[in-house]
Amino acid sequence: MTFQNFIGGTWKPSASKKTFLKVNPANIDDVIGKFPQSSRADVREAAEAARDAYKHWRLVPAPKRGDILRKAGMILEARKDELAREMTREMGKIFAETKGDVQEGIDTAYYAATEGRRLFGHTVPSELPNKFAMSVRQPIGVAGCITPWNFPLAIPSWKIFPALLCGNAVVFKPAMETPKTAQLFVEVLIEAGVPDGVLNLVQGGDEAGKAVVDDPNVNLISFTGSSQTGAIVAQNCAKRHKRVSLEMGGKNAIVLMDDADLKLALDGVVWGAFGTTGQRCTATSRLLLHEKIHDKFLDMLLKRVEKLKLGYGNDEGIDVGPVINETQLKRVLNYIEIGKSEGAKCLIGGKRATGNGLGKGYFIEPTVFANVKPDHRIAQEEIFGPVLSVMKFKTFEEATQILNGVRYGLSSSLYTKNVNLAFQAMRDFETGITYINAPTIGAEAHLPFGGVKETGNGHREGGWQVYDFFSETKTIYVDFSGSLQRAQIDNYES
User: By CB count within 10 A, which of 9, 111, 199, 226 is most buried?
Assistant: First the structure.
């Protein structure tokens, strides 16, 4: 099948008629379809359509905008299994996880719908008599939403639902690796009643992404991707004075103290490290073990990892799917070789999996390194694959120093029965998210999501804070005194 962009309420090919091919990463013989390779001309048309539609959409009462998003949630709920199976086919993670991806979109839709009645401002007393002061929330204009492939429905919902609820129009540029999920998501919103031009879909790669950032009709950018690309996005937005939210990389760690519940921790470590094939910004890529339980837990871990079953995520009994494409396959395998060259010991995995019918997919055996040093590249750099680096520590203070000793700061975890250490971790771990006795993955839609350092630029997705990003505060004064009253003048007698 050949798919199209959605611009101004019409499905249409790219202006250049160029396309790109998308295949199933678990079986490259399974072709999903051809999709538009959009250019600046396509983005310009989409942004202009969004700008025109914004003039009317901003005047729709926020509760009515919320009603449309509530309907979108209902449609997602009815089509959950269908959407999840398509998503697994397109990007590889197992069916249970893609169902969770859709459920997060459902949760976000229902949460957004209620925010239509909660776009609160403030009323405050004026310092002057017979004067009323308040603030209100207003939309900004056209939002450019640039999303990744690892959560191809959930993350677009994090951005697009709040943007629409606040009264903005949207230009949506999804990742090239998940174009069909993006189209299905847009179709749901069309069915729910989003008016023509309010939501525009432009498929494609770097040219389309850069054009969304650069277009003068786009007022704000919400970007999720690598820290390297995010820095470029931020620089280009700064030149154009655009508001920008960046959600970027992570190098997340779980710390296991010697009093930890090891069975509970084992479940968390395996899920955190190898869920989504390690392709999450919140994935557990570092494991810090107290010296007293290091050997015992490592033995438990290897026995569990050995039993993980690789395969096509829509099949029964599969634990780990493929990485997303050949480029990522080569990247992860290269990091495995780097780890070996640095002196770390590969205890399990470490190579491409081709047996049992896996040869036509991008499968990598779940990999565990021991004897990793905090300054090793595999302990410092984001790999985005099924690779776990294990380090030993003696004290909680040492573990905290290792955990904080990376340039990222997204998620962290501590397993302990010591309440004092738990509160120290909540205070001292330099991350936007900290879990106690749970892995580094598993965000909930109604809480803020984001990180510090090179993970983010201070904004948050999810929860209540994202609505501040997609709206503007307007302060209003009403003077009913009938005379000139001067604020910011010394009105106090000495």
Answer: 199
